[in-house]
Amino acid sequence: MTTDPNKFDTLLVANRGEIACRVMRTARAMGLRTVAVYSDADANARHVREADEAVRLGPAAARDSYLKVEAVIEAARRTGAGAIHPGYGFLSENGPFVDALERAGITFVGPPASAIAAMGDKSAAKARMHHAGVPLVPGYHGDDQDDALLKAEADKIGYPVLLKASAGGGGKGMRVVESAADFQAALDGCRRESQAAFGDQRMLIEKYLTQPRHVEVQVFCDSHGNGVYLFERDCSVQRRHQKVLEEAPAPGMTAELRREMGEAAVRAAREIGYVGAGTVEFLLDADGSFYFMEMNTRLQVEHPVTEMITGQDLVEWQLRVAMGERLPLAQDELTITGHSFEARLYAEDPEQDFLPATGTLTRFALDLEGAGLDADKVRLDSGVESGDAVSMHYDPMLAKLIVHGADRDQALATLNRALAALDVQGVVTNRAFLQRLATHPAFKGCELDTRFIEKHEATLFAPREVTTEAYAAAALIGLKQLSRECESDSPWDRHDGFRLNAPHTIRLALCATGHDLTRAQAPDAEDVVIVEGRRETDADPWQLVIGDETLTARIQHLEGDAVAVTLNGHRRRLQARLADNGVVVMADAAGETRLFWRRIDAIDHGQHEAESTLTAPMHGTVVALLVEPGQKVEKGMPLMVMEAMKMEHTMAAPADGHVESFHFAAGDTVGQGDVLLEFAAEE
């Protein structure tokens, strides 16, 4: 460390993944040495590989590694780090951590603990904002957390209401309650999530505005009394209260409204003695009224869109302010140039209610040259590379794709071309869903609000027309898998369609409606396509019968997930991979098609089996068992709760009946596909 207490030459980044890599990139440009920390699950992660030094913190679970204050501080001591950048999440808004750093003589790249505490308690923050003259949404922010009182307050406010963890953020411990009948179950679920994420079960309640936009203002303050706002971002497109697409500046923003919101945000920051980068989040109603929602006392995930339109490096600003310097620019020196979008790439399956996904990235690349894109207009902030594993232990965000254009239309066109050029293989992602969002007429027309995805669910999730090539590829992969399952030379042991003195024949059912043919919720007959495959010997091509078409077909594996499918002599290259009882096919740049497949003679038996069991839809941890074995339940009633990548998933009864037994207890780790319980349906 240097002799000047305000200066440091070594920076420890107390985070992982994309944000750790992004912070270290600026730190290196400023001539600072970088130190990474890691859990056992991240021993070979990208942020570890890129740092000058790296220190192990502990086991995979965040509570045993990234959230261990003592271990992080000890890592800083061992490496001589004079400052710690927390990124976002983990310890980024942890006041006791900041206090501990101050006692250890280590600079925290962020606000003082008092500011974190002032905004960390959402209820107290509302009172402070009222005092500062910042507009508030009607709600309850009191200390009394009695269930009956909270219910009464919600009834008084009027449904729908938003339940939100008082100490929370990032969509954790947050649920919309549509009616009084749903309140208690939602409260219990929010408290569990809040306790797991923040160690705090306190809740606040707000009136849920039905068509608001989520507009936030980037603020920055230094220790010399200076404060500015770097304009606004629109983050209205969300799922489960987590942002998916963000843009800057906000569409339709007038100069007067921008100034009013910006000045209100700076007032909010000054009220709590803020220093560093912060974001004041507002709900913007259709009539132009705006209401304080919360302040994130850290750098936001979506900060790159602000960097794109202002030309400023916000991490550099953070580091300079932490060194005691003044803000680089005054308010009248800040300007907006063009428009920017950010799309968050998640390891999740939008077709399966956004269930988080795990696996190994066989390929992760962005071909800008091939797509004819300008490297100055496209930026990919990621924490992964080809070959990296995606763990169940952490947030499912893999990367952020950020673009810039002269105006909104140009930026949106660039975003779509960049999404098409993004090649991600080996793990299910939301890439195709992001393309559907970005090309949706309502999004292109700036018809934005926080329920955008819910409002347009019918079109965003509408079944896409499946090409013959996709059906053929899925069938060929299914036939190949069945052929591989037989390792015996005996014809009596084979189940790959072998018949004595007759062609091998296998009939497959393929479904593209999102129904897993191994689960109890069977698709309608018209949603299933039957494919018959026949061939004389293993060396012959397959004769596929798809509907009324008969095709001579071969499949050849290329590199990664690339395959070549030849149909009647016409060879096509596409991406195809196995995924959870099905095949994901990407036949063009426009998106992906998922086809579930199963041998036709196994469907009836498989559905009967599914009625008696429930399997884990993802790798995760059992949080709670909600019923007792033998207890009578109705179809749709919650049976147990799983958690993965910081989000809860509830398993519901597939029919009226009762649970015969649970195979796991609360706290147990389960793998995707594990049978969770035995269920007996009523006769």
UniProtKB/TrEMBL annotation:
SMART domains from the UniProt entry: Biotin_carb_C, GARS_A
Cross-referenced SUPFAM superfamilies: Glutathione synthetase ATP-binding domain-like, PreATP-grasp domain, Rudiment single hybrid motif, Single hybrid motif
Cited InterPro entries: ATP-grasp, BC-like_N, Biotin_carboxylase_complex, Biotin_carboxylation_dom, Biotin_COase_C, Biotin_lipoyl, CPAse_ATP-bd, MCC_alpha_BT
Keyword presence, Transit peptide: yes
Record field: catalytic activity: N(6)-biotinyl-L-lysyl-[protein] + hydrogencarbonate + ATP = N(6)-carboxybiotinyl-L-lysyl-[protein] + ADP + phosphate + H(+)
Residue span(s) of domain Lipoyl-binding: 605-680
Cofactor annotation: biotin
Pathway membership: Lipid metabolism; malonyl-CoA biosynthesis; malonyl-CoA from acetyl-CoA: step 1/1
Pfam families for this protein: Biotin_carb_C, Biotin_carb_N, Biotin_lipoyl, BT_MCC_alpha, CPSase_L_D2
Complex and partners: Acetyl-CoA carboxylase is a heterohexamer of biotin carboxyl carrier protein, biotin carboxylase and the two subunits of carboxyl transferase in a 2:2 complex.
Function text: This protein is a component of the acetyl coenzyme A carboxylase complex; first, biotin carboxylase catalyzes the carboxylation of the carrier protein and then the transcarboxylase transfers the carboxyl group to form malonyl-CoA.
Protein name as catalogued: Biotin carboxylase
Biological source species: Halomonas shengliensis
